[in-house]
Each structure stands twice: as structure tokens, then as C-alpha cells.
Amino acid sequence: MTPDRTALAGDDDAGVLDAAGGLEELTLMSLAKLKEILTLDLPTEALTELKSPGFKQALDLAKLQLGATERVLTTQTRVDETKLRRRQIDVLPRLLEILAEEKKALALMIEGEVQQ
Predict the structure, then answer these.
(1) Terminal CA-CA length for the chain
(2) Contacts of residue 65, Cβ cutoff 8 Å, sequence gap at least 6
(3) Which residues, listed in sequence order, are joined to residue 17 by a DSSP beta bridge?
(4) Dihedral sign of CA atoms 22, 23, 29, 33 in order
């Protein structure tokens, strides 16, 4: 059974699927679950002995927390890189304008020296 696309997301005026609201809700839920996983107490004493009754569960939890941490850090790095790129793009027009002004000023200085 295929889910109704409007149940998952709404269509905009042009009939284009807009799932931004649903995605935002899922993102918030995922972040809450990640926080829950990362704040679980890791029974480190169970990890000190292979034959400890809780060893496998503690190891599984440690792996889960490590994977979640890696995912969060990778995602944050991508977000930071995107912000940096946007900032660079935002500054580029102003830098080009400054370069053009300096080029004109330099041309006027050279022209003034040649006439003297």
C-alpha cells in the first residue's frame, strides 16, 4: 500500500510536493532521540571484563553512542561548511566592487604620473 503523498507532505500552489514541515518534525524527533541515546549511562565497569554478564549490552551501547556521535559531528561539519560557503558568496560581490574601485584609482594615478 502506497501512502498518500499529501498525508506525508502538502502540495504547494504549483502541485509540487513540499515536505519541509514533515522533514523538520522528523529532524526534531531524531535530535531528541540522539540526545536520549548519547545521555544514557554507559556501564563502563561491565566493559572491563569480557565474561561480565553485561559486557555485550555495554559494548552495544558504546557502539551505538559512538555511531551517533560520529553522525552528529559529521552533520555539524557539513552545516558549518555550508554556512562558510554562503558567507564567502555573500562577500564576493563587495570584494569585486572594491577591486574595481581600486583598479580605477590605480588607472587614475598612473594617468596622472604619465601627464606630469
Answers:
(1) 86
(2) 37, 38, 40, 42
(3) 11
(4) positive
pLDDT digits (tens, 9 = 90+) for 9-21: 555 666 666 788 8
Task: Please tell me the distance from the alpha carbon of residue 51 to that of residue 55, in angstroms, as a whole number.
Answer: 7
Q: What is the dihedral of CA 76, 82, 87, 92, to 10 degrees?
A: 160
Per-residue pLDDT at 111 exceeds 80: yes
DSSP 11-26: E-TTS-EE-HHHHHHH
Output the CA–CA distances (angstroms, integers) from residue 48 to 13, 40, 53, 55, in the order listed: 60, 18, 11, 8
pLDDT at residue 59, rounded to an integer:
92
The C-alpha cell 544514557 sits at 40
pLDDT tens-digit readout, 53-67: 889 999 999 999 999
Reported for 33-42, long-range contacts at CB under 8 A and 24+ positions apart, including other chains, are 34/68, 34/71, 34/72, 37/64, 37/65, 37/68, 38/65, 38/68, 38/69, 38/72, 40/65
